[in-house]
UniProtKB/TrEMBL annotation:
Protein's UniProt name: Adenosine kinase
Keyword Ribonucleoprotein attached: no
PROSITE patterns noted in UniProt: PFKB_KINASES_2 (PS00584)
CDD domains: adenosine_kinase
UniProt keyword list: ATP-binding, Host-virus interaction, Kinase, Magnesium, Nucleotide-binding, Purine salvage, Transferase
Functional summary from the UniProt entry: ATP dependent phosphorylation of adenosine and other related nucleoside analogs to monophosphate derivatives. Essential to sustain methyl recycling.
Pfam assignment, any one: PfkB
Location of the Carbohydrate kinase PfkB domain: 27-336
Family (UniProt): Belongs to the carbohydrate kinase PfkB family.
Catalytic activity: adenosine + ATP = AMP + ADP + H(+)
Length: 342
């Protein structure tokens, strides 16, 4: 691998996951559904205290992009191969986040907001499936001014691969644009994620603008179908949708876009150059499933860990499936000390 220090840079919303096994009454009370991710509205605000009071909670440093970067770092086992930017508060949750990232070996450059608490995400688990409700707080305060500071822009210059979850489109589309333009101008690889149905529904314009720069677009079947609906494609066929996304106009013609869609226990779909390939995933017996929180993020982290070593797509998918399989057998996006991937 070419000089690996800081080869992969992520930007996103650092959130502290407050994870608990809840009950159906709790889901109904707050009008939330499994296998979905939403931003907290006023009606959700009380749920953070309630989940802590009522259920047995675990605190895990999370946020979609940060999860993927940590997993890529874990798979690579090369200290400082990855870096990450986002905004946290100056508080105990923020300190927890810094400690956790350091332990993970990720070079983090957080913007620290003086007045806003670190963002949290309620992870409500039932039967291994999860519902995410993010209260962005400080994560919402990220500004492109932080990115432009010489010590932070140096991370952009150093990186050859970029990964940004779609959630960050709700916070700082201008930061995404700066990084995307840099990647296109310097023949670097820019990757993103559909992340959640609401991103395609309510942030369509900034999503489309970023998509024009995206070399690899990740997502799951629900997000792909929502994207199709929003764009009036009138198809629910995930393979067709993946192909159409891969053919979306692109700023840099150096390489064609590749769409990577996961479908839970069903095969991973890769659309590239007018063709679709399917790769089976590692099936896990139901009794081994702890929770699916972080599975998609882990898949991306595993995938990227091989992509930046210029491995073939099959290997990238295999590593993605391996990482996701490890993560769903544990609570939250956590992993053993060393990967066992060959």
């Amino acid at each position: 691998m070419a000089s690996s220090e800081g080869i992969l840079l992520g930007m996103g919303n650092p959130l502290l996951d407050i994870s608990a096994i809840v009950d159906n009454d709790f889901l109904q009370k707050y009008d939330i559904t499994l296998n979905n991710a939403i931003l907290a509205e006023d009606k959700h605000k009380p749920m953070y205290d309630e989940i802590i009071e009522k259920f047995n909670v675990e605190y895990i440093a999370g946020g979609a992009t940060q999860n993927s970067i940590k997993v890529a770092q874990w798979m690579l086992q090369i200290p400082g191969a990855t870096s990450y930017m986002g905004s946290i508060g100056k508080d105990k949750f923020g300190e927890e986040m810094k400690k956790n990232a350091k332990l993970a070996g990720v070079n983090v450059h957080y913007y620290e907001d003086e007045t806003t608490p670190t963002g949290t995400c309620a992870v409500c688990v039932i039967g291994g499936e999860r519902s995410l409700v993010a209260n962005l707080s400080a994560a919402n305060c990220y500004k492109s001014e932080h990115l432009k500071k010489p010590e932070n822009w140096a991370l952009v210059e150093k990186a050859k691969y970029f990964y940004i979850a779609g959630f960050f489109l709700t916070v700082s589309p201008e930061s995404i644009q700066l990084v995307a333009e840099h990647a296109a101008a310097n023949n670097k690889i820019f990757t993103m994620n559909l992340s959640a149905p609401f991103v395609s529904e309510f942030f369509r314009d900034v999503q489309e603008k970023a998509l024009a720069y995206t070399d690899f677009l990740f997502g799951n079947e629900t997000e792909a179908r929502t994207f199709s609906k929003v764009h009036g494609w009138e198809t629910d066929n995930v393979e067709e949708i993946a192909l159409k996304i891969s053919e979306w106009p692109k700023v840099s013609e150096t390489r064609k876009r590749i769409t990577v869609i996961t479908q839970g226990a069903d095969p991973v779909i890769i659309a590239e150059d007018g063709k679709v390939k399917k790769f089976p995933v590692i099936l896990l017996p139901k009794e081994k499933l702890v929770d699916t929180n972080g599975a998609g993020d882990a898949f991306v982290g595993g995938f990227l860990s091989q992509l930046l070593q210029e491995k073939p797509i099959e290997e990238c998918v295999r590593a993605g499936c391996y990482a996701a399989n490890v993560i769903i057998q544990r609570s939250g996006c956590t992993y053993p000390e060393k990967p066992d991937f060959h």
